[in-house]
Amino acid sequence: MDAYTPTERSEVRRLPKRAVYDKDLVYSILDAGYVCHVGFVAGGQPYVIPTGYARAGDRLYIHGSPASRMLRALGQGAEVSLAVTLLDGFVLARSAFHHSMNYRSVVMFAKASLVTDPAEKLEALRAFTEHVWPGRWAEVRQPNERELSATTVLALPLDEASAKVRTGPPIDDEADYSLPVWAGVVPVGMELGEPVADERVLPGVAAIDTERFRRG
Amino acid sequence: MDAYTPTERSEVRRLPKRAVYDKDLVYSILDAGYVCHVGFVAGGQPYVIPTGYARAGDRLYIHGSPASRMLRALGQGAEVSLAVTLLDGFVLARSAFHHSMNYRSVVMFAKASLVTDPAEKLEALRAFTEHVWPGRWAEVRQPNERELSATTVLALPLDEASAKVRTGPPIDDEADYSLPVWAGVVPVGMELGEPVADERVLPGVAAIDTERFRRG
To answer: What single-letter DSSP state applies at residue B191?
Structure first.
């Protein structure tokens, strides 16, 4: 098992029995999510910003406009903390205190670096598209020079990360098991709605196949 | 319309046309979410940690163990940035560049304060339970003295916040509308699975009614 070594900042302190440092698990959580939350410090002030991302190998990529306050701060080598959280279920216990959620989360720490190599930048942009909708990259118009210049891509090395996972039923106090209260887990997942075609899709173009969609 | 005044840190800089400072919208996004991401600085290092939350009036509450590194740092008056993000759809354009997501997000800034008033603390704990499953508080065993002592509750005033919202179809470059590519929005929502009863639920106890569940 390939695993991360917990560091001072990446070690899970609370409920350490839920902590997992296995790289494959960390990767699987990252690959199942769509939105990450990026934390950084600017002028002594913490900021948390949601954004899309994609993983390729042991690097996590985020992207945006060169004018982005976040990307400018991060591209200058600021320390980043980044989290991806998947909600898997509501855990309903017999006492209010033991209510919980089932989830999988990753928290990583890294310094971001600006991706300047054109091949890596294109590969990262391909990863963003394929992350959401596998096969899409080959179907659409790929980025031109102007669009590449108008996109900043940052890479974060995935070498300091931890996962936290809760699964299973509620754990109640022994005395509470005699209460006549329903307890258990209500699973939660992501559901795709009926695709809404843009008004200007050309006649004869096949509707999108949502079966191709990679579910988390 | 009751609105937040954008500050240096809460003003949305990127894509300001997506920014909304309306309090009702901010509240509705917070009330529809389940997990927030809390950003803070400890020892000069940014941290982002996912956690549950609940809103009551113009305060947002988070809670956890008194041993939590995050809650200890925050309870001492550290600056907090907190984000809640709801993913609403995948926006598939005719070019890779114009792919996007529909979403609603809130980013807020505040100093947290420890909730020490027993009545407010109990009210916050009630809000956590009711936020996830309305009506649950009255059905379950409420917190005892030991559990109240074992729970730290922090309040964050909701007076510096902004929302960001994207809705609607992809916006393609005019030339790309002639491409024979499907484009549009695939809506995304949260789906509840079949409840899984705990093994020790007493005979005769009615199954949980998922219709009571508040969907985002």
So the answer is: E
More confident residue, A92 or B5: A92
Nearest CA-CA distance, residue B63 and chain A, Å: 11
**Burial grade of B173 (CB within 10 A; 0-12, 13-18, 19 or more):** middle
Nearest CA to A61 among A41, A36, A79? Answer: A36
**Chain B CB within 8 Å of residue A122 CB:** no
Q: Does A3 reside within a domain?
A: no
Q: What is the phi-psi region of residue B204: left when phi exceeds 0, alpha when psi lies from -120 to 50, beta otherwise?
A: left
The confidence score (pLDDT) of residue A216 equals 47
* pLDDT for res B185: 97
Global confidence as pTM: 0.94
Q: What is the CATH number of the domain that holds A179?
A: 2.30.110.10
The CB density around residue B144, as the number of other CB atoms within 10 Å, is 12
Structure tokens at B92: 């598939």
Question: Which residues of A fall within a CB distance of 8 Å from B145?
Answer: none
pLDDT at B216: 47
Sort out which chain A residues have CB atoms less than 8 A from B133's CB and list them.
Answer: 90, 92
Q: Is A79 on the interface with B (CB under 8 A)?
A: yes
Summarised one tens digit per residue, pLDDT across range B187-214 is 999 999 999 999 999 999 999 988 877 5
Name residues whose C-beta falls within 8 Å of residue B159's C-beta, 6 or more positions apart in sequence.
B4, B58, B110
Dihedrals φ, ψ of B58, to 5°? Answer: -100, 30
SS3 for B147?
helix
Residue of A130, A208, A138 lying closest to B182 (CA atoms)? A208
Domain for residue A112, yes or no?
yes
Domain extent, residue B101, equals: 16-212
pLDDT digits (tens, 9 = 90+) for A178-214: 999 999 999 999 999 999 999 999 999 999 988 877 6
Q: Count how many pairs of residues, chain A against chain B, have C-beta atoms within 8 Å.
A: 288
Q: How far is CA B62 from CA A95, B22, B49, B58, in A?
A: 19, 23, 12, 14
Domain assignment present for A11: no
Q: Count CB-CB contacts under 10 A for residue A117.
A: 11
Task: Quote the number of domains for chain B.
Answer: 1
The residue of chain B with its CA nearest to that of A206 is B182
Confirm whether B205 is domain-assigned.
yes
**Residue A80 to residue B182, Cβ atoms within 8 A:** no
Q: Do B50 and A177 touch (CB under 8 A)?
A: no
* A103/B50 touch (CB, cutoff 8 Å), yes or no: yes
Distance, in angstroms, between A107 CA and closest chain B CA? 7
